[in-house]
Design goal:
There is one protein chain. This protein has 131 residues and is α+β, with helices and mostly antiparallel strands. Helix content is 23%, strand content 49%. A six-stranded mixed β-sheet has the order 2-1-6-5-4-3. α1 runs antiparallel to α2 (26-32). The longest helix has 16 residues, at 7-22. The protein is globular and about 45 Å long.
Length: 131
């Protein structure tokens, strides 16, 4: 395997990530997450867990759909930084909710399957929508 992480591998991993979240496949999701995964909030503070992912994992919420706007990638050797706007449609105790955010992801090459894993995840406020 090349030491350089190819954006096409990240695109495929992202597609598997979104599918795992929508179809509630925790094993597939776990295979994509680094054991060293760290989460940060919009202030850059490290989080122990994402309330959104915790609710999903406990099956208190279901991700009905994920709308991705254009993403940007920056490749740097064995890592690729991906950022873009997301709109996540959730079904839960409070009915259907829409969460908009800018999600910053750092994907890193790994030796095991699937060859790439999510190393870092930062949830930022969505950019204001133009009128």
């Amino acid at each position: 395997m090349s030491a350089v992480l190819q954006p096409a591998h990240v695109d495929a991993a992202e597609a598997r990530l979104w599918d795992a979240l929508i179809q509630w496949q925790p094993q597939q999701l776990s295979a994509l997450l680094s054991p060293a995964l760290f989460l940060t909030d919009h202030d850059g503070q490290r989080q122990d867990a994402s309330p959104l992912l915790a609710g999903w994992n406990a099956r208190r919420i279901r991700i009905a759909a994920i709308e991705r706007e254009q993403t940007e990638q920056l490749a740097c050797g064995a890592m690729v930084l991906v950022t873009g706007e997301l709109r996540i449609h959730l079904d839960g105790d409070h009915g259907r909710q829409l969460h908009s955010m800018r999600l910053l992801r750092v994907w890193a090459r790994c030796t095991g399957a699937p060859g790439v894993h999510l190393l870092s995840l930062c949830m930022l406020p969505a950019a204001p929508r133009p009128h």
